[in-house]
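Predict both folds.
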Amino acid sequence: MTVRAVELPQLWMPYPLRVNPYLPALREESESWARAMGMLDGDAGSPDRRAIWTRARFHAMTVDQLTAWTLPDASLDGLRLNHRFNIWALAWDDYFASAFKQTGDLPGARVFTARLRAFLRPEPGARLPEPTNAVERGIADLQRHLFPPHLAHWREEFNRALERYVDAGVEELANSRNGRIPHLIDYAPFRRESFAAYTAPYSVELATGARIPEQIRHTRTVHALLDAFMDFMGLANDIASYEREVHEEHDVNNLVLVVGTSLGISLHDAVPAALHLVNARLRDFEHLRQEELPLLVRRSGLHDDERAELEVWLEGACGFLSGIHAWYTGAPRYAATNVSFRP
């Protein structure tokens, strides 16, 4: 039974979609960086330029829309920077699936990942290995540009998030090879890693120029807010990519399978249960944003400018969630799963 054979509840999204006005400029140059990194076909004569996508497949993913929808407030420079990161993350995902998940090559995946980790050293000026493929070439280039002075404080945390991201790919492959479906209790924290969700607060800060005030950043309320923010991204992605991951890639790391196995219920019941869980995490985010965070702000005695900066960041976070929801429901990458989504 597939998702398309199940009558689904609706996935909730309370925030309106806003589109960055620089989308046309981004669309015009969308493939230039991917081609320069060797991710697109056309370099078949060079053994170290193995392409990941055809030009048609690349444009069908509409990564430019993903970037412009999730970062409606970003400057053109910020939009370009995040666009390159989005391209790289999808390139890693598709390359890893093709080279290792489809072949079951766990030793090869470990070697590939160990080399990638060498590109994620947080020290400025660290000497990087010589890239040997498009994924390494892309991350090496990003390391030179991702952390402009106003975002330099993100270098260590962002690279740690990327280490978690690539390491999670190996763990996912090991799960699939062993037929081990993760347990629901463990899966949501793991999905934040395997979706690279820990990089999303950086993207919001890049787009808005606003930070969560340091005085409340490490409180329980803010941690809970960020967890719910990140959970929606990865868990909703599992719904959108169910057909491709489970039926085409034979992946066991998907919320629908996790819910069904952990709760001992059929797929018919697991699909709506998974959707309700995704909805619940977004409602948690909204409750924390509307009810608990204002109480924390008042107790913490934030200044007016700090409160204003927090509001700008939160508006950016809501825009990010709305944009990623719109991409899940509109991009051909996820078209195989016909899920009912409510705006």
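Second protein follows, with its predicted structure tokens after the sequence.
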Amino acid sequence: MTGTAPPHTGTEGVEGGIGVTALLVAAARAIETHRHDALARDVYAEHFVRAAPASAGWPVRPEQVADGEANPLWGRFARYFGLRTRVLDDFLLRSVRSGDARQVVLLGAGLDARAYRLDWPSGCVVFEMDREGVLAFKHRVLDGVSAAPRAARVPIPVDLRADWAGALTGAGFDPAAPSVWLAEGLLFYLPPATESSLIGTVDRLSTEGSALAFEVKLEPDLLAYRDSPLYTATAEQIGIDLLGLFDREPRPDSTGDLAGRGWSTSVLTPFDFTRRLGRGPLPEPNDALAGNRWVFATRARENRGRPGPGEPVRDRR
């Protein structure tokens, strides 16, 4: 089954292009959920994979991958997405538990089910922003399994390449209150000017005590890794050309931009967290993950005594 399967009623947001990458991440989360040493658990992920013709034949359990961990896509790459899920889960929970922030904004939420599976403190509101078709598919699947959110959930159908600030504030977001922002697997699909605009909007809507995490790629030339096993296996096994989806213009320095605006930032590699948590990918030759960085930023206030990025959060899922 490939990412070019024909659309199915209710799947218009995920049957091709960037939308189908949300199914790739969901499949990886499903596989991670069923590992004996899982870093994160998402019981809804496999339902998304099975509901879309583009992904109905993909594996959702480790035993369904014939060559197991040796498979570049469903082994190493899936491990990467499992690690990323755990690290960003921890970031969100740490941020809302250690401060006053109760507003969580998921930019490009995709098929993320954090509103349903994380143990949110009382009073949290999770704003999910993505294209209408993606959210419609997500709602249909979650309604089909009678899923109930564990925080107030506000879906906002919007294209993040447009002016989305008004849609967010119109849905009840309060810029005067601390907030937590997440852009997971989003920015490298956007044109550089759109990324800079998005970061500037987050800054404008964030008061002291707010936090932000996002993912970037630092390679000056993404095509240098066009023969990487991760990219070639993804194209061969499920028909997704990731390099064709990434924006290949020179990227802005969003981390430096935030620092210049008064945010405290830290930049880490996925491999840093593999070593901390004992599971996940490590560097290898011709590595498509070599330039990936996870950025954590806080708008200063009462940062003393808070756990640093990637430190464990108790009562694991």
